[in-house]
């Protein structure tokens, strides 16, 4: 395999793993801005270590291992800044998170099916908030409810959606 | 145990909302530390969250303020080139890196999205100026996507009436209630399968899918076997069809019924039911008496001559439109113009009709097949399946833009239903589409915007489409005025919405490159399943201009093109 080919394959793998890596890192840090920084750092580290890349071996575990180190060092560096998960707990969680994030693509179809099944009101809430990028305040103004009420309704809608997706996933497993 | 999982959900939710105190955070960690099931649950919750964000973020509806500028310039990151790449591969790698960074940027959509205050109430005050685009969010429970329609207008000639404040046109579905025309002829198909030809002036009350009440005027009904039982009431008469073609007329003198073919039952108060056969006629006068009458079938316009009138008129309109486009296509402001008028089904080349001609702008038809356009004898291109599209490639850089299209929307199946989308969504690239909510949606990508007011270059019209418009030809137009920082949406020649765009969110240089009509093509996305944005409907004329057209000019396009 030529170097160029190998690079291309590496790039493809890295690209394919972006969403999972992001999810993994975000799950532990609980902060989107921090998570995107850490994923970028992880990408750079992976890129620099391209020499260690072996197309014969699965890319995921390698990438996740490096992401884990980056997360741990980020937690350490944050010092007093609040993070969701401390280092000790991160070690406890990383295995199960990696496993679940590898199934990220499995979530997509159930998610779409469940979105379609949500009643109109809940579906509209989710849509306006996440798909059309409307702020809680916007939605509240539009439906004539308070921001607090929309927040609660949105949280319920998301919970409903999560239940539905979980059920679908379980059905797929069995 | 289950309570603990629920508690975890609540704590996590509070964290996301930025309202979790230290005590709560401690509790969250404690649950995770001590409960293996909770750790599994946590992983599923977070994976779900990320799936939801990335599903939502798959559109460009999310602005992209890149953190620390690292990925904002696709050519810059070559500094991160790997240590061991031979010279020949160097340039290639640089491109690859650029692509990775592009892909990373895409993955960061999620981040950019939520790094704005996710559940912030603090934005309430700042959004007042934006109220016009917000107020149109329809309250989901208000509108049930069902139709109360009982019939549909399929053809009309010489009719100049309005329904719901809109000009009556083919494809209009009719709900129970009064229907009135002053003049002309209209063909109405009832959902039971009966067809009537109503001649103006006429007044008809639509009652159900198989019952109508003629108050004034003349109608001819054609009732195939499947629609037996279709009933027309006129004065005190009930005319129940038994599989036939018949005419009913109501005037100041009374009501007439005449059978051209088959049989009908005529019910009249308490009297016995009269059975009328072919060539029979009865007259019900103002004194309430029912008497035999002489059949005068010529009083009723028959379908054949109606269709002759219709096609003559269509030909006239089509010819008038063709004449008009002769000068239209020479407009120097036209960037591209497709009239979709190529009758050959398997000619997969969509010619650009600007003059002087530029074959480079011809489109490639994929999947979509020709269908009847605004007039018989004029084609459109029908987009139905997820793969259907037209590929075009438009070089050059522009400033202001205008889009104009005749579109027949059958339904809005996708969250985003494409009219015209550039493949990528880079600086200066426009996306013109319709949301499933029935709103026209236009944006030109502008990178690196960090406005406290959020993204305001996406311009959403109020809801203009609803299922009752399904199958009707609509003229849609959008203008993007760089100098006045103004985007305007038009429907059927009328201004639908206008919105100013903050100066820092206006992309002053616009461009297209590889683009798609009626769908979205994203060649570089590994997750291709995101990109289904096919229109379910037809397009019959699409023009793109390098200037913002005036309201008068949009009106002119509408008037000359309306079927």
Automatic annotation (TrEMBL), chain A:
Annotated keywords: Sigma factor, Transcription, Transcription regulation
Cited Pfam families: Sigma70_r2, Sigma70_r4_2
Domain of life, source organism: Bacteria
Stretches assigned to the RNA polymerase sigma-70 region domain: 15-80
Keyword flag Isomerase: no
InterPro entries: RNA_pol_sigma-70-like, RNA_pol_sigma-70_dom, RNA_pol_sigma70_ECF_RHOBA, RNA_pol_sigma70_r2, RNA_pol_sigma70_r4_t2, RNA_pol_sigma_r2, RNA_pol_sigma_r3/r4-like, WH-like_DNA-bd_sf
Domain RNA polymerase sigma factor 70 region 4 type: 111-161
Keyword Transport: no
NCBIfam families documented for this protein: Sig-70_gvs1, sigma70-ECF
Family: Belongs to the sigma-70 factor family. ECF subfamily.
Protein name: Sigma-70 family RNA polymerase sigma factor
Taxonomic lineage of the native organism: Bacteria, Pseudomonadati, Planctomycetota, Planctomycetia, Pirellulales
From TrEMBL, chain B:
Domain of life: Bacteria
Ranges for domain FecR protein: 212-265
InterPro entries per the UniProt record, alphabetical: ConA-like_dom_sf (IPR013320), FecR (IPR006860), Ferrdict_sens_TM (IPR012373)
Pfam families, A to Z: FecR, Laminin_G_3
SUPFAM superfamilies on file: Concanavalin A-like lectins/glucanases
Residue ranges of the region described as Disordered: 63-87
Protein name: FecR domain-containing protein
Source organism of this protein record: Aporhodopirellula aestuarii
Lineage: Bacteria, Pseudomonadati, Planctomycetota, Planctomycetia, Pirellulales
């Amino acid at each position: 395999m030529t170097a160029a080919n190998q690079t291309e394959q590496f790039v493809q793998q890295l690209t394919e793993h972006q969403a999972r890596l992001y999810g993994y890192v975000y799950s532990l840090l609980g902060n989107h801005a921090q998570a995107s920084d850490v994923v970028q750092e992880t990408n750079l580290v992976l890129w620099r270590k391209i020499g260690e890349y072996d197309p014969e071996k699965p890319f995921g575990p390698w990438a996740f291992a490096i992401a884990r180190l980056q997360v741990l060092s980020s937690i350490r560096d944050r010092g007093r800044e609040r993070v969701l998960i401390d280092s000790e707990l991160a070690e406890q969680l990383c295995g199960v998170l990696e496993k679940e994030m590898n199934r990220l693509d499995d979530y997509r179809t159930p998610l779409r099916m469940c979105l379609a099944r949500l009643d109109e009101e809940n579906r509209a809430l989710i849509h306006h908030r996440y798909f059309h990028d409307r702020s809680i305040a916007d939605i509240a103004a539009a439906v004539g409810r308070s921001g607090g009420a929309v927040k609660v309704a949105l949280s319920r809608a998301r919970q409903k959606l999560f239940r539905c997706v979980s059920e679908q996933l379980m059905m797929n497993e069995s | 145990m289950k309570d603990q999982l629920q508690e975890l959900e609540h704590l996590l939710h509070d964290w996301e909302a930025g309202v979790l105190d230290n005590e709560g955070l401690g509790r969250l960690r404690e649950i995770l530390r001590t409960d293996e099931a909770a750790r599994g649950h946590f992983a599923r919750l977070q994976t779900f969250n990320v799936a939801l964000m990335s599903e939502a973020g798959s559109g460009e509806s999310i602005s992209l303020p890149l953190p620390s500028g690292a990925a904002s310039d696709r050519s810059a990151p070559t500094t991160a080139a790997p240590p061991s790449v031979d010279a020949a591969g160097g340039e290639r790698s640089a491109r690859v890196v650029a692509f990775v960074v592009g892909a990373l940027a895409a993955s960061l959509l999620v981040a950019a999205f939520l790094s704005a205050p996710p559940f912030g109430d603090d934005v309430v005050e700042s959004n007042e100026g934006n109220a016009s685009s917000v107020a149109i969010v329809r309250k989901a429970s208000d509108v049930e996507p069902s139709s109360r329609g009982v019939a549909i207008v399929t053809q009309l000639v010489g009719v100049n009436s309005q329904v719901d404040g809109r000009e009556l046109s083919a494809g209009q579905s009719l709900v129970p209630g009064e229907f009135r025309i002053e003049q002309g002829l209209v063909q109405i198909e009832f959902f039971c399968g009966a067809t009537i030809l109503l001649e103006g002036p006429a007044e008809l009350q639509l009652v159900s899918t198989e019952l109508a009440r003629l108050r004034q005027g003349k109608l001819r009904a054609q009732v195939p076997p499947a629609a037996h039982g279709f009933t027309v009431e006129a004065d005190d008469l009930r005319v129940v069809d038994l599989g036939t073609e018949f005419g009913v007329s109501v005037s100041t003198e009374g009501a007439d019924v005449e059978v051209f073919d088959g049989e009908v039952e005529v019910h009249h108060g308490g009297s016995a039911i009269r059975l009328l056969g072919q060539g029979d006629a009865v007259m019900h006068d103002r004194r309430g008496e029912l008497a035999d009458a002489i059949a005068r079938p010529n009083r009723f316009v028959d379908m054949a001559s109606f269709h002759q009138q219709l096609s003559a008129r269509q030909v006239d309109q089509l010819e008038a439109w063709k004449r008009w486009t002769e000068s239209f296509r020479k407009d120097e402001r036209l960037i591209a113009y497709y009239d979709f008028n190529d009758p050959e089904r398997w000619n997969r080349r969509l010619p650009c009709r600007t003059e002087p001609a530029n074959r480079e702008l011809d489109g490639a038809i994929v999947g979509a097949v020709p269908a009847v356009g605004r007039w018989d004898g004029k084609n459109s291109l029908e987009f139905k399946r997820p793969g259907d599209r037209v590929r075009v490639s438009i070089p050059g850089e522009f400033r202001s833009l205008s889009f104009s299209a005749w579109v027949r929307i059958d339904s809005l199946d996708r969250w985003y239903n494409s009219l015209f989308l550039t493949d990528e969504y880079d600086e200066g690239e426009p996306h013109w589409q319709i949301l499933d909510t029935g709103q026209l949606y236009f944006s030109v990508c502008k990178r690196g915007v960090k406005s406290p007011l959020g993204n305001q270059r996406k311009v959403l019209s109020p809801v203009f489409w609803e299922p009752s418009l399904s199958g009707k030809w609509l003229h849609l137009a959008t203008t993007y005025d760089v100098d006045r920082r103004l985007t305007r949406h038009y429907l059927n020649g009328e201004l639908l919405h206008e919105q100013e765009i903050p100066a820092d969110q206006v992309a002053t240089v616009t461009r297209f490159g590889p683009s798609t009509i009626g769908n979205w093509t994203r060649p570089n996305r590994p997750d291709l399943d995101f990109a289904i944005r096919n229109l379910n409907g037809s397009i019959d004329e699409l023009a793109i201009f390098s200037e913002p057209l005036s309201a008068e000019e949009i009106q002119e396009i509408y008037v000359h093109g309306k079927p």
